[in-house]
Specification:
The chain is an alpha+beta fold and 199 residues long. The chain is 24% helix and 42% strand. A hairpin with a 2-residue loop joins strand 2 and strand 3.
């Protein structure tokens, strides 16, 4: 993979959480000596143009342990590299901290996107030199909850897909007792799981 193609490369795997209780996950994550930890609650609003094209507006965190670093607001564009693959994607994040939600909404609609759905995420995020591991809940617009675990390779390392896979597999091996295994990888993204029908 060329150096240019490595830019904005998102490599992550998502898994259903076996239990709502975060304690086993947190105990294991702490035992790996993370470089940093944050707990964040935030709303994500998804705007659609087609079934495969969307923007995600991550609003400022409603509850953060570090208001200056973890309350960032972002507008994100994502694109799959293959129809059947949600693990490796292009992800481009733009910080929009200084803009009001109304202005971000107007910008998205001006580009031809319309609001599709929103979710509330509550995340425990543990940072390591090569990846982040996350336990989070998702509350949908009907008030229903779902629970997920995630491994995401540190994008700033500019790794190839092959190098990123090695990191994913390393953490899967460590976290297998929690049900985080290759066989449990989810094939659908949050966008695909929660999106409303697009006419």
């Amino acid at each position: 993979m060329s150096e240019e193609k490595k830019k904005h490369l998102e490599i992550e795997c998502k898994y259903n959480a076996e239990e709502k209780d975060r304690t086993p996950f947190k105990d294991l994550a702490k035992s790996l000596n993370p470089t940093r930890f944050v707990y964040v609650e935030s709303h994500d609003i998804y705007y659609s143009k087609s079934a495969d094209e969307f923007l995600r507006y991550r609003m400022p965190a409603e509850n953060s342990q570090n208001e200056t670093k973890d309350s960032r607001s972002e507008l994100t564009f994502k694109k799959k590299h293959a129809e059947s693959n949600n693990v490796i994607r292009t992800e481009v994040n733009l910080r929009v901290d200084l803009n009001s939600p109304e202005l971000v909404n107007a910008f998205c609609e001006g580009l031809g996107y319309t609001k599709n759905f929103s979710i509330l995420k509550r995340c425990d995020i543990y940072f390591y030199p090569d990846a982040d591991i996350v336990f989070y809940s998702v509350k949908d617009e009907d008030g229903k909850y779902a629970y997920y675990q995630e491994i995401e390779v540190d994008e700033s390392l500019n790794l190839s897909e092959e190098e990123g896979w090695e990191i994913i597999k390393k953490y899967e091996k460590i976290m297998a007792p929690l049900g985080i295994t290759a066989q449990k990888r989810k094939r659908l993204s949050l966008w695909e799981m929660y999106r409303k029908e697009i006419k």
